[in-house]
Amino acid sequence: MLIVKKFGGSSVADKERIFNVARRVSEDYKAGHDVVVVLSAMGKTTDGLIAQAKDINPKASKRELDMLLTCGEQISVTLMSMALESLGIPAVSLNAWQVPMRTTSNYGSARLKKIDCDRIKAELEHRKIVVVTGFQGINKYDDYTTLGRGGSDTTAVALAAVLHADACEIYTDVEGVYTADPRVVPHARKLKEITYDEMLELATLGAKVLHNRSVELAKKYGVQLVVRSSLNMAEGTIVKEDAKMEKMLVSGVACDKKAARIAVIGVKDEPGIAFKLFNMIAKHNINIDNIVQSVGREGTKDISFTINEDDTDDVLRVIDDNNGGIGYHKLDVARDVAKVSIVGAGIMSSPGVASRMFEALFDAGINIKMIFTSEIRISVLINEKYADKAVNAIHDAFGLAD
Ligand code: ADP
Ligand code: ASP
Ligand code: MG
User: Fold this and answer.
1) If you measure from the C-alpha of residue 173 to the centroid of ligand 1, how many angstroms do you get, rounded to a whole number?
2) Quick check: bond before 100 cis, omega within 30?
3) Which residue, of 218, 290, 321, 368, has the greatest Cβ tally within 10 A?
4) Closest by alpha carbon to 74, among 99, 40, 29, 49?
5) pTM greater than the 0.85 cutoff
């Protein structure tokens, strides 16, 4: 059997945790399996590197930032390989160059394009545990790229797909996927199974237990995932196509505190304005989340949208530089907002779900700034300081607890 096992930052945070993982993977190895291990950087290493970069140059280029961030994963894979060697298990660490793993060219949010498996297969044939850096790739300029925060999950799923692995296991610091972040809602319930589609929504809406691209890839290539704890043997959550969901209307509540809202107020009410605005933002490779256009005054309209908080300055600069193109009256920015969402396959077909969510927020005294809906989710934008309270209130209102 070929198993891909991915361990997140907290699972390899220090020497003791590294040996815990080393022992765990060596059990599979000793049972005769081929084992590929994908690692994140140790503990909060990536945050530390970002802070160091910002300290030197707050406007550092994304190219240099990626070059720096890839160091984190290189430390953890080499130390893991050394830990395995010390236990008498043959192992080899490989970075994105050595595999190699090719990505698109955009630094900071690159997508994996092509993984060459020959080196990994050769090492497995020599009966080595192969320890691969998560989160990184190389682009057409032969530069390092990163896949976006939390991207090691995506490396693991991509490797499982190209290697036709028999299992892909994602080990983290909680026991699986819950109805809400168990650190925010202590009585959240662990799900036995969840579908790719629901997991994808939850991950995209802020449940960082899985990188959303990893779920997208898992669905595309039919890679069944298990999410479980690296610290105990508890059964985790299976992510797959047709989950036998306990017929739940709402399967989870997610929260994204890294949202920001920009309102472009008083743009001309004429054709092409939205196109010009979002085209110039897209040209800078910035993702827009939700868009709402509303009626303004005196032949004008307002366009509001949400983005990742980290992109705020870039978006403001782009709009400011191009004011002539769309001619707005005012830009309004809110960084202290959070997006709280419910996800569930049955939402569209069940009247009353939205009102139950809004009632929970009303009862908790929380004002809603924006509302977005899709077939399987309802999201609201609220003040960030009420985010945890909102998640708990909504979780309770839908009776999701154990
Ligand atoms: P890793 O370093 O292992 O990749 P992450 O910090 O990226 O771990 O993801 C795990 C964290 O995701 C958990 O510690 C938990 O706080 C958070 N989380 C958010 N939503 C959920 C959810 N619905 N189920 C489980 N964990 C969640
Ligand atoms: N080390 C990277 C991060 O902190 C990637 C990951 O953890 O998956 O975002
Ligand atoms: Mg993660």
Assistant:
1) 7
2) yes
3) 218
4) 40
5) yes
